[in-house]
């Protein structure tokens, strides 16, 4: 009988108005347990960053992948999240040459894989492998938003990480839509329509 090799997968960044959605896949090493794994949203930024280092050092295999804002607009955020999970698993297999025997993903829907896959509601709080994946996905996405902050310092990405906070909406209205904003999301779409209307009535 083959040994169970469980891969946990989770995504981060479905709600923000800007940036890519990220996902991570993790196969933990039972001989090198990691203490403190939990839903990334319930951990401090410092704790997440510390655990991400441990996960990368001690897991049997891990992978991180993303789907861009442009792709999100083309296929919608649900499909983009599924695609990010598939890409994360592929990245793990490519980098470590290791397949799982079972995949568990956080949530109530799972992407298609060529092996058994289960969706676990609140899995990031119940399954250590999914918790680890949620931490890697969250820290990778936060790092990408810090990079965006250096490209677009006026938007405050380092503070709001792309979420529709009052600050973000204020800066979006003041400075306009960037190439990294998700145009299919209502606040961004509304602003584009307003700006288009203003341009249409602007005298030449």
UniProtKB/TrEMBL annotation:
Catalysis performed (reactions): Endonucleolytic cleavage to 5'-phosphomonoester
InterPro entries reported for this sequence: RNase_HII (IPR022898), RNase_HII/HIII (IPR001352), RNase_HII/HIII_dom (IPR024567), RNaseH-like_sf (IPR012337), RNaseH_sf (IPR036397)
Cofactor(s) needed: Mn(2+); Mg(2+)
Broad class of the protein's primary localization: cytoplasm
UniProt key word Cytoplasm: yes
Keywords linked to the UniProt accession: Cytoplasm, Endonuclease, Hydrolase, Manganese, Metal-binding, Nuclease
Residues in RNase H type-2 domain copies: 4-197
Pfam families: RNase_HII
Cofactor note: Manganese or magnesium. Binds 1 divalent metal ion per monomer in the absence of substrate. May bind a second metal ion after substrate binding.
Keyword Nuclease: yes
Source taxon at top rank: Bacteria
Subcellular location: Cytoplasm
EC number, as in UniProt: 3.1.26.4
Positions annotated to bind a divalent metal cation: 10-11, 106
PANTHER family given in the database record: RIBONUCLEASE H2 SUBUNIT A, RIBONUCLEASE HII
Function: Endonuclease that specifically degrades the RNA of RNA-DNA hybrids.
Name this polypeptide is given: Ribonuclease HII
Organism: Methylophilus flavus
Gene (UniProt): rnhB
């Amino acid at each position: 009988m083959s040994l169970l090799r469980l891969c946990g997968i989770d995504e981060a960044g479905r709600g923000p108005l800007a940036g890519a959605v990220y996902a991570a896949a993790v196969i933990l090493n039972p001989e090198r347990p990691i203490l403190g794994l939990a839903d990334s949203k319930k951990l401090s930024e410092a704790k997440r960053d510390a655990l991400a280092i441990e996960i990368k050092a001690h897991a049997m295999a891990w992978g991180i992948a993303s789907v861009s804002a442009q792709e999100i607009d083309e296929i919608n955020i649900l499909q983009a999240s599924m695609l990010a999970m598939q890409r994360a698993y592929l990245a793990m297999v490519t980098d470590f040459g290791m397949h799982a025997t079972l995949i568990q993903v956080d949530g109530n829907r799972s992407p298609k894989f060529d092996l058994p896959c289960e969706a676990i509601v609140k899995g990031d709080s119940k399954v250590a492998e999914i918790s680890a994946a949620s931490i890697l996905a969250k820290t990778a996405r936060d790092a990408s938003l810090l990079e965006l902050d250096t490209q677009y310092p006026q938007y405050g990405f380092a503070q709001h990480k792309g979420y529709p906070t009052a600050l973000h909406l204020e800066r979006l209205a003041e400075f306009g839509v960037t190439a990294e904003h998700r145009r299919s999301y209502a606040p961004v779409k509304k602003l584009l329509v307003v700006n288009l209307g203003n341009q249409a009535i602007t005298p030449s």
